[in-house]
Every structure is written in C-alpha cells, then in structure tokens.
Protein: Amino acid ABC transporter permease
Amino acid sequence: MAEHSAGLKMGSRLSASEATAHAIPRNHVVPRRYPGRVIAVIVILILALQAGKAVATNPNFHWEVYAEYIFSPTVLRGVGWTLLLTVVAMGIAIPLALTLVVMRESINPILRGAAWCWVWFFRGTPVYTQLAFWGLFAVLFPSISVSIPFGPELVSIESRWIVTPAVAAIIGLSFNESAYLTEIFRAGFRAIDPGQIEAAQAIGMSRPKIWTRILIPQAMRIIIPPTGNETIGMLKMTSLVLAVPFTLDLTFATNAIANRTYLPVPLLLVAATWYLVITSALMVGQYYLERYYGRGQGPVLGKGGQH
Structure:
C-alpha cells in the first residue's frame, strides 16, 4: 500500500509538472530579416541579365564563328596538348619539389645550399625567359655527350633529337613550378607540431618513415589548396610555351585561327570557354581531395556556424 501511494504521489507530481510546462507560454522566435540582402540579389540579377543580353545579342561577338570552332579538330587538339603539358609538368614538379624540401630540411649544408639556389634561381627569373632558354638549348649545346673525364667520348647524341619543343616546354614549366611548390610544401611540413617528430625519433623511427608516415599525411591537408591553385595556374601558364616555340597548345591554336579569319573575339571566347571548363573540373577534383584529407578536422568554414 505504501508503494502504491508513493507511486500515486509521483504520478501526481509528474502530471503537475506537465501541466505547468504546458501552462508556461513558449517564446516565438522570429528570424531576423535582412532586406538589404534581398535588394542586393535583385540588383545583381538585373545587372547579370542585362549583361547577358548585351553579350548574346551583340553581332560583333560573331557567335556563329564561335559555334563553328568551339569543337573544331584544331581546337580540340590544342585542348589535348594543353592538358598533357599541365599534367606532365605537374607530375614532374611535385616529386621534384618534395625532393627539394627534403634537401632544404637536411642537416647537410651542401644539400641545403643547393636546394636554396634552385629555388632562388627559378623563382627569381621569369618563366617566359626560362622557356626561351630551353627552346635555345639545342643551339647552345648542339650535342649531348657522355665521356670519361679528360678522356674520349663514349656516347654523343644531337640535342635536337632529345630536347624537342614539347620536351623543352615541359622542362621549363616543371622546373619553374618546382621552385614555388617547394616553398608551399615546406610551409605545410613546418606547420606540423614538432613534438610529433620528436616522439617519432624517440621511438627509433628513421627519417624516411617520419616523412612518409607522419609529415606527408598530415601536411596534405595544408598543401592541397595552394597546390590546386598552382595546378590551375600551370594550366594557364601553358599559354606561354610559344617562347620555346611550341605551337600546338590551345592558345596558339585559337590565335592561329583568329589570324586567318581576322576575327579575334570569337576565338578568344573559344579559348576562354575551354580554360573555364578545364579549370572547373580541376576545382571539383581539388574539393574532393580537400574533403578526403580534411576528415576529422571540423566543419568547413561557412558550414555549421552562425551568421
């Protein structure tokens, strides 16, 4: 009976609490309104529509010429060569930059000095000048030979068969880019807590293992965004390979058609369209790489916060 009466008292207390909770009026939260945002969106939409109409209806843009050449074989070949130059140059620049970072962080002063000189030279001279030099390599050094020091030549090959315009363009682009990537990678590695390196050394890990298991995986989160920007910059830097001269890239292909048709504007739009398409694809890839290596690092800026 005592337990039953206690249960009734508890039930009555709960009922009273529920009734009190229902009796208390809840605050009706009204979201703050931002009329300025609505006005700004309307103004931007109006300006965008007006600009789009002005461009679409302007006969001086020669959209019929744009439609004729946007998928022409010459332009598509230029797109292919531009992609090839970008991928190969970055594929060489990235491991070269990693090697230079290891040299910059080495305890050997000769390696540190050599890496510093490399970065100093290729960052300090214009990429156009470097490309022009590599284009003149066969003139400066007509042959490449392997010989015994102060002895006879073993092998000799004409430079023009090795340093072709495509090879010269790739060497010039990749060497220049490696200098910039070296500083990006070095900043990413230095952002890691030195205590982790000391702990790894304390348990007897070798320097290669420290780099591959501790430094590189953690630094990827910091390195990927600027490296993505450098890749997009490399895509557009391929337009300078005319200095070699290399004449198969997208910019040269569209310029050649423009010079033949005396209509530069639609061909500039063709080149701009393809650069935008490729850049958009690279940005999507960069986004997924950042999301993969940023797992466990908290929400992305602009998400999950109060504004």
Observations:
- Residues 73-104 form the longest helix (32 residues).
- The domain at 61-293 is CATH 1.10.3720.10 (MetI-like fold).
